[in-house]
Records
---
Amino acid sequence: MTSITSHEREMLRAAYGPLRQLANVVAPRGVAADDLVHDAFVKLLERGIADVRDPHAFLRRIVVNLAISEHRRSGAQQRAMARHGIDSIATSAIYPSDLSELQHLTPRARALVLFVDIDGAPIKEAAKETSRGGNSQTTSAAST
């Protein structure tokens, strides 16, 4: 693993809070927000911070993509359990919350709510942040 500069270290520290807030919003039930944030940081460090035009956008995109992947995986697991007659609701904890309605949205939709309604980002910018387009290198997020 390559070492990072003190400037990059401070950038990562500053990014942690807002990134964790995003992860808390987009994480499917049963997935810890910190796990999404950790995996995003690992992907950024594997890529190399210097090789990413906008590390903040890259990290946000990775968190949303990881949440979408977990959401897909969870859906596949629930379908498999249903095929075998197992009630997936009974096997997972449900915690009541004022924000429970957000769980009915996809991770991408929850991210849009966070970016537009909480962060005050313009809708066009938020849509670009959460778009499913782009390649595996998330070049569209890096160019924002």
---
Amino acid sequence: MTIKLFLAQTLGFVSLALGLWASKQTSDSKLLQGNLAASFITAIHFGLLGSLVAMLNQLLNLGRFSLCQSYKHKLLAWIFSAGAMLIGWHFCQYYYEWLAVIASVILSFGLFYANGTALRKLMLIAALVNLCLAIFLNSYSGMLYQLLSSYLLASQIGLLGQFKTLYYRGLQVTYSSY
């Protein structure tokens, strides 16, 4: 393993730790600040790995997470979404790379239109889309991060408790009682 590859992988795991810490936060500001730091490190990680689309998307995330903390202007969601689309049109070479663009658009609207539970729901949807991308790319650290992040976000919005309740009700009552 070369030093460059070792550094890239190390930065990837540092970013994973920061992102998971951010996903555990109940405060919107800590959630956004953690993702801001993770985006910066992830951009370097993808740059070292040679993935231009992923690096540009993370730089876009860096701008989004930075601005949404001070400015909740809805026009910014449209501007960042347009930026993601331009990255896609100019740099996506494979159909699955558009998953990063889709997740980026969802995240743009989540960050500038929502907060609290609604923000976490949109971040969960974006994480699940990014999970699909990680599967297509065979990125094990990406899959791990998106799965764990999705679990943490789903826990915070009470989604996991709803599934357990529905499952237990399904065992206790007949289908027609719903």
---
Amino acid sequence: MKWENFEKTKKIDEFTKRCLLNESIYDYKGSIEIIKEYWLNAKTITEFKELVKNDLRLENNQGYWELFKEDTRLVINYLNKKEHERIETYSDIGSLKVGNKDFTICIPNGIGDGTNYVYIINEDVKIPCLKFITTMSGENFEIYDYDCGNNVIKRLSGRYAIYNYNGIFAIVKWNK
């Protein structure tokens, strides 16, 4: 595709385009050139997006994550590539239930009833394609398989950040 069409396309959000071309100190050196190369070599915008999202050198570029936000399936694929522990929970009140025998809370999943995909990430990383929701810390807090039930499927101890996007949760261990 021609580079001058990058600015004109309406199939990529304007904010996402600005982020793709804004190389910060955290970005892979030369990320803008890589993005331009992918645009020029792609035959379609869908192919361009796939090329960018499959290049882990670009994962510190905010535009990379903005592209992921456009498609929930791609967020799941990204998290699966990292081989994090994944569990599924079910919802009838639109949430992920966590707590213990004395106290529980239901964290909204953003989509309502259905399946939640929960990734347990035991390293201190940011997950920019997901929205930061809250933190939790303590000993032996539990994740329940159903937001209206009491069956525990995972126990955690420590300090964690919880991120969410459309029924996808990342529970990220904080080492701070």
